[in-house]
């Protein structure tokens, strides 16, 4: 009798059981990503119709990427901050301050622009160390530290810039205003390099998705159905090829900032999904006490999150200053709100622990399409702000309602 009772629990708990919750979580995450991507497609189609086809004109698509590169760069860093359970309100002011440093170093100190860019990245890292120290080692809430940083660095930007510093070197200005046009020649009106980059990106996406699917199967996890897999990837490949064709017809080909942003997306997607540092960020955001008990060095991880945010803010400053062609004390206003909104619209959880780089980028593109579409329609800037506010509120409300339903179902 006793022997029978002792063997029953083992028989009642077969090996596949623990994998089921993970599979369900992955399906929910995938459905959320489908929804975000579908929202982007729907918004693009809506404005394409409302603008009479002007939204997706080749030069407008190139401008869309150039104008919103700073949002993508900041959103990547902000994603890591929010996933860890923090917030950074200072990035807009940091962008303005470092933009002033860039302009002064090139125009007054006569530094070559590559050295000026390197200096900007070092300054960004130092600012990140400053804020990370207070958050990680002194225990001051990130909200307070970065609110102080927002005031501090905006004031410093006004002090060091004073008047607009223009006349920046042409090579520096080209970073955000030019592209790799004609480097491999043309086929008709199509830029060959842009076509090659687009095809390689499409093939690389399919190969990586197939490898991920094989890995899930090998570890006993149930991947999505084959039909849904090919429909999803077919849609994404079609979008990549469509925008490749559009950019190949533009006057600048592949924008330099698109190459920069694509590189950052690949690197940080790898960091968040495949490295110990990325797993530690998710662990801290999910349950900081449990992460600490599991051996995660919470202080060190939080410190490097803010150092990383400082470097990315410096990179966003390079892009913004290059785009404007001048150092401006008023630069970067509301940049932190754009980055935070992109993350939340892209599915990052308000409470931390959940978020993906791809989602943040899609959120940034949604914000960019809204900005450009409303501008083409000559909508008053005040109404543009109101509409973006409603979109942000709706995205966060949708996320919270979905989680409550998921909790009720569990």
Automatic annotation (TrEMBL):
The chain crosses the membrane at residues 34-57, 69-87, 94-111, 117-144, 151-175, 187-208, 229-248, 254-271, 302-320, 326-345, 357-377. It is found in: Cell membrane. It comes from the Bacteria. Its main location: membrane. It is a multi-pass membrane protein. InterPro entries: ABC_transp_permease. CDD domains: TM_PBP1_transp_AraH_like. Residues 1-22 are annotated as: Disordered. Keywords: Cell inner membrane, Cell membrane, Membrane, Sugar transport, Transmembrane, Transmembrane helix, Transport. It holds the Pfam family BPD_transp_2. PANTHER family: ABC TRANSPORTER PERMEASE PROTEIN YPHD-RELATED-RELATED, XYLOSE TRANSPORT SYSTEM PERMEASE PROTEIN XYLH. Part of the binding-protein-dependent transport system for D-xylose. Probably responsible for the translocation of the substrate across the membrane. This is Xylose transport system permease protein XylH.
């Amino acid at each position: 009798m006793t022997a029978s009772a002792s063997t029953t629990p083992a028989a009642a708990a077969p090996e596949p059981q623990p994998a089921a919750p993970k599979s369900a979580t992955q399906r929910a995450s995938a459905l959320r990503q489908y929804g975000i991507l579908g929202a982007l497609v729907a918004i693009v189609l809506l404005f394409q119709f409302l603008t009479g086809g002007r939204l997706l004109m080749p030069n407008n698509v190139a401008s869309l990427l150039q104008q919103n590169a700073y949002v993508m760069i900041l959103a990547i860093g902000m994603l890591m901050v929010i996933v860890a359970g923090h917030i950074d309100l200072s990035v807009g002011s940091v962008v303005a301050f470092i933009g002033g440093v860039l302009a002064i170093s090139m125009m007054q100190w006569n530094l070559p622009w590559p050295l000026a860019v390197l200096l900007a990245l070092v300054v960004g890292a130092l600012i990140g160390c400053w804020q990370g120290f207070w958050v990680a080692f002194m225990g001051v809430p990130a909200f307070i530290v970065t609110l102080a940083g927002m005031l501090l660095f905006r004031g410093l930007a006004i002090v060091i810039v004073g008047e607009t510093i223009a006349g920046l070197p042409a090579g520096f200005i080209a970073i955000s205003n030019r592209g790799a046009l004609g480097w491999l020649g043309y086929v008709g009106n199509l830029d060959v390099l842009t076509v090659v980059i687009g095809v390689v990106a499409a093939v690389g996406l399919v190969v990586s998705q197939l490898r991920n699917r094989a890995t899930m199967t090998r570890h006993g996890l149930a991947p999505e159905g084959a039909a849904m897999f090919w429909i999803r990837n077919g849609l994404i490949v079609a979008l990549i090829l469509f925008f490749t064709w559009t950019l190949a017809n533009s006057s600048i080909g592949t924008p330099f900032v698109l190459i920069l942003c694509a590189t950052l997306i690949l690197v940080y997607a790898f960091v968040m999904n495949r490295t110990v540092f990325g797993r530690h960020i998710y662990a801290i955001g999910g349950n900081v006490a449990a992460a600490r008990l599991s051996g995660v060095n919470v202080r060190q991880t939080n410190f490097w999150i803010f150092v990383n945010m400082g470097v990315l803010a410096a990179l966003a400053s390079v892009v913004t200053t290059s785009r404007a062609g001048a150092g401006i004390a008023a630069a970067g206003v509301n940049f932190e709100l754009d980055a935070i909104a992109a993350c939340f619209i892209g599915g990052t959880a308000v409470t931390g622990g959940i978020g993906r780089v791809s989602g943040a980028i899609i959120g940034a593109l949604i914000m960019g399409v809204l900005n450009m579409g409303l501008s083409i329609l000559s909508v008053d800037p005040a109404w543009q702000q109101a509409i973006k506010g409603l979109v942000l509120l709706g995205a966060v409300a949708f996320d919270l309602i979905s989680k409550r339903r998921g909790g009720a179902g569990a």
